[in-house]
TrEMBL record:
Residues in coiled coil: none
Signal peptide coordinates: none
Residues covered by the Protein kinase domain: 53-306
Stored PROSITE patterns: PROTEIN_KINASE_DOM
InterPro entries (alphabetical): Kinase-like_dom_sf (IPR011009), Meiotic_Drive_Suppr_Kinase (IPR052396), Prot_kinase_dom (IPR000719)
Name this protein carries in UniProt: Protein kinase domain-containing protein
GO molecular function, one term: ATP binding
Region (Disordered), start-end ranges: 1-30
Length: 306
C-alpha cells in the first residue's frame, strides 16, 4: 500500500538574529487567530490567488489538526464551511506522546534541519521518534506527521471525488495559511501550515454522541454503501471510529482520512483484497453503529426495518 503525494506544509524564509522568543503558551489554548471573528487568509495551492475567511468558531478540542467553522469574508451570506489546518504547533495528541511543547526557536532549527536533509516525499516514512534526541529532531517529526496527515487527506478526497457531497463532505480547495494570518499571535513562525477547505455538514453529530433515533436505517445503509465502495477507488480509510462518522437529519458522512492507505501500482488484486479485509473499514463501521443502536446484529436490524 502507498500513501504517496509530495504536497504538504511549506516553509518561509526566516532569520535567527531576532530577539529571543517568549515562552510558548499552553498547547490546549486556542490561539487568538483561531478565535471568533478572526480573519484568516489561505494561499491557494498552485495559484497566485488567496481566499479570506472569518472564523465563526473553533471546533475543539484540537487533536492532530485544527478544525474551524468559517465564512468567506467576501461572501458572508454564502454559508458556513470548514477550514481544516494542519499546524504542527497544535498537534496536541502527537506532542503528548513525544512530551514536547512547541517553541518558535526549535521550529526554526527544525526548518534548518529539513533544508540540510530534504525529504520531498510526504510519505517517505516517519522516523522512529524514540530514537530522536535533539529538540529540533522531535519538532521535525511533528512537522512530518502533520505533512503526512494533510497529504493523506488530500489524496483520499481526490480519489473519492465521486462520493463527495453524499457520503463524504465536498473538498472546495486547499492551500496554506499565510504568515499574515498568524501575526496577531505575536509569536514568530517559520512554516505556513497546510489547510483543506471543506463542506460543512449542518446539524451533524458524531456517532459517539448521536441519539440512536438519529440513526435512520436509510442513512445507515447509505453510509455502509459508501464505506464499502472505498476499496474500488483504491482507498482504505483505516480509522472509522465513532468520532469520524457523522449523522445529520438527511446524511451520514465519514471524515478524517489522515490515516488512509492507498493501493500502489505494484499491489496485486489478492494483496489489496487482503489489506481491505485486514483493515476492515466496513466491519468497524458496523461494529460502532451496532453498539450505538444497542442491537444484537446490525444486519438483522436492517433487514427488519424500512
Amino acid at each position: 500500500m502507498s500513501n504517496g503525494t509530495d504536497e504538504g506544509n511549506t516553509e518561509v524564509d526566516y532569520h535567527l538574529d531576532s530577539d529571543p522568543p517568549q515562552p510558548t503558551r499552553d498547547p490546549h489554548e486556542v490561539p487568538v487567530y483561531y478565535r471568533p471573528e478572526s480573519q484568516l487568509e489561505i494561499q491557494l495551492a498552485h495559484s497566485a490567488m488567496t481566499r479570506q475567511f472569518t472564523v465563526v468558531r473553533p471546533i475543539t478540542p484540537f487533536t492532530t489538526s485544527q478544525v474551524l467553522l468559517v465564512r468567506e469574508t467576501n461572501n458572508p451570506g454564502g454559508g458556513e464551511i470548514v477550514l481544516k489546518i494542519y499546524d504542527p504547533r497544535f498537534m496536541v495528541n502527537v506532542r503528548r506522546v513525544i512530551k514536547r511543547t512547541w517553541d518558535p526557536e526549535v521550529e526554526a532549527r527544525s526548518v534548518e534541519l529539513r533544508q540540510m536533509n530534504p525529504i520531498p516525499d510526504a510519505f517517505a516514512g516517519l522516523p522512529n521518534f524514540c530514537a530522536l534526541k535533539k529538540p529540533e529532531e522531535l519538532e521535525n517529526y511533528v512537522f512530518l506527521r502533520a505533512r503526512s496527515d494533510f497529504a493523506s487527506e488530500l489524496k483520499a478526497y481526490r480519489q473519492l471525488q465521486p462520493l463527495q457531497g453524499k457520503g463524504l463532505p465536498r473538498l472546495f480547495g486547499h492551500g496554506t495559511l499565510t504568515s499574515a494570518s498568524m501575526l496577531p499571535d505575536g509569536q514568530p513562525r517559520y512554516i505556513n501550515p497546510s489547510a483543506l477547505i471543506l463542506e460543512f455538514v449542518p446539524n451533524s453529530t458524531p456517532l459517539r454522541d448521536a441519539d440512536p433515533a438519529m440513526l435512520r436505517p436509510d442513512l445507515i445503509r447509505s453510509l455502509l454503501e459508501t464505506v464499502d465502495s472505498f476499496h474500488t477507488f483504491n482507498v482504505i480509510h483505516a480509522d472509522p471510529n465513532p468520532g469520524n462518522i457523522l449523522f445529520s437529519p438527511d446524511r451520514a458522512v465519514i471524515i478524517d482520512f489522515g490515516e488512509a492507505y492507498f493501493r500502489s501500482e505494484e499491489e496485486s488484486d489478492e494483496d489489496w483484497a487482503n489489506a481491505v479485509f485486514d483493515e476492515g473499514d466496513l466491519r468497524w463501521c458496523k461494529i460502532w453503529i451496532t453498539k450505538r443502536l444497542g442491537v444484537e446484529s446490525l444486519d438483522d436490524y436492517l433487514s427488519t426495518v424500512v
